[in-house]
Specification:
Length: about 425
């Protein structure tokens, strides 16, 4: 029978890593950087910068790392968030790593724009198609495209020795692809032996905010329609659902959306995978060139990319002149520069800084509150979690009806006992049979 070892994730959010053993063969799902100590608490940043088995940032897994004899048939990555893939650079180059086309593209983009510590890229990457079973040794692995704040995220069905294991990865049912979860619930996989299900929102911090991504879009739109001056937005470029909400809200409100080169390039690239994504010819996106971004594009991708985008380029003066019609989503240093130029001609009028990311980041980063103080801007929080609400967790658990349900990616594994049936509390690093 297959044996599962959750190397990290039974008592923490982030840094998930799951091994499945069948006979002499092993596969690994996810190898993420931890976001916190097991059970919560901060990790010393120095440890994160120099990951090793000795300092416990790399999970102690034999046959996985560069200086070991390779002992895995494959590694599967659910999505490109660092807490699921951030330690990939350490694995042995003879072990193939499978991921979705979207995850791979985001990692390629990261090579150009991200700081060195956040870059993950391997020659051994192999792209899979969602819903297409892959044979790897005795395993049959099928990716299920999931709704998540991370683009092109997968859950995995792993079949071996007549057993079925389903690893949800990170998922939700209230984003722009909510139909994916509905489909999984309405047409569940039968005969499920083991469900490894995330429970991120069962903690406190993820519960605040809006109910779903549609409400987020409405929240944006409401503000943009009423704006008396420019609106400023802080949002993660890699949260593609959020960028689409922003894009659509600007279109409904008749505003120009000002993006940086990184965000525009990201959308432009992902459009090849998801043609329905912006940009569209003649639309309302303009690009503010930040020197560092332009330099990276010129160095890594060539000047012709900049040349291709030139018709959308917007200068500081044009933003300042047309400020009432501008929604500006840029790094905070660039927004500060623009706001300073604006106040040279007239004070800002009831201006808002919309913070469209997880509240937890705001507590660590003072740049946004500094912006609000300097320009007397109102900070408005518009956000919804990238992770499933309890209601959807319950629906999925009932639909898949597993013999065993194992909590993962949660700070509240114990709550699973009262919320779900057939719960088994695994321990990090301790194998259990299916
Ligand atoms: Zn994620």
């Amino acid at each position: 029978m297959p044996t599962i070892t959750i190397h990290r994730g039974t008592r923490t959010i982030g840094g998930s890593s799951v091994e499945i053993l069948s006979g002499q063969h092993r596969i690994l799902i996810d190898l993420g950087s931890p976001l916190m100590q097991s059970g919560g608490g901060e990790i010393d940043p120095e440890r994160l910068e120099n990951p090793s088995v000795a300092n416990k940032i790399l999970p102690d897994i034999q046959g996985l790392y560069k200086d070991d004899i390779p002992g895995f048939d494959a590694v599967f990555i659910s999505h490109s968030h660092m807490d699921h893939c951030g330690l990939l650079n350490h694995i042995h180059r003879d072990i193939p790593v499978y991921l979705s086309a979207g995850s791979l593209e985001l990692m390629r983009i990261g090579q150009v724009f991200y700081p060195r510590s956040s870059r993950v890229y391997l020659d051994t990457f192999r792209v899979f198609e969602h819903w297409q079973p892959m044979k790897v040794g005795p395993f049959c692995v099928t990716s299920y495209l999931m709704d998540h704040s991370g683009y092109d995220a997968s859950a995995f069905l792993v079949e071996s020795e007549n057993k079925k294991i389903f690893y949800t990865g990170d998922f939700r049912g209230h984003g722009r692809k909510e139909r994916l979860l509905k489909r999984l619930i309405e047409h569940p996989i039968q005969g499920m032996n083991c469900l490894l299900m995330e429970g991120t929102t069962l903690g406190g911090q993820h519960q605040a905010g809006f109910a779903n991504e549609t409400e987020v879009e409405k929240g944006f739109c409401h503000i943009f329609k009423a704006q008396e001056d420019a609106s400023f937005v802080a949002a993660a470029g890699s949260n593609v659902d959020r960028l689409v909400s922003l894009y659509k809200a600007c279109r409904s409100a008749g505003k120009t959306l000002v993006l940086d080169l990184y965000t525009f390039y990201l959308l432009d690239r992902l459009k090849e995978i998801t043609p329905g994504l912006p940009p569209f010819k003649g639309d309302h996106i303009r690009i503010f060139y930040i020197k560092g971004h332009a330099q990276r594009i010129a160095d890594h991708l060539g000047q012709d990319v900049l040349y291709r985008y030139r018709s959308r380029k917007i200068e500081l003066d044009e933003i300042a002149t047309g400020r009432c019609d501008m929604v500006i989503k840029l790094p905070v240093h660039a927004m500060t520069r623009i706001a300073r130029r604006m106040i040279e001609s007239a004070p800002l009028t009831r201006v808002k800084l919309i913070y469209a990311m997880w509240q937890g980041y705001l507590e660590k980063e003072t740049a946004y509150s500094d912006f609000c103080s300097e320009f007397n801007a109102e900070l408005v929080h518009i956000h919804v979690s990238g992770h499933a609400w309890l209601d959807d967790l319950k629906k999925l658990a009932i639909a898949l009806n597993p013999e065993t349900l194992v909590p993962i990616h949660t700070l509240n594994a114990k709550r699973f006992n009262t919320l779900f049936s057939n719960v088994f509390q695994a321990q990090d690093g301790v194998p259990f049979d299916i």
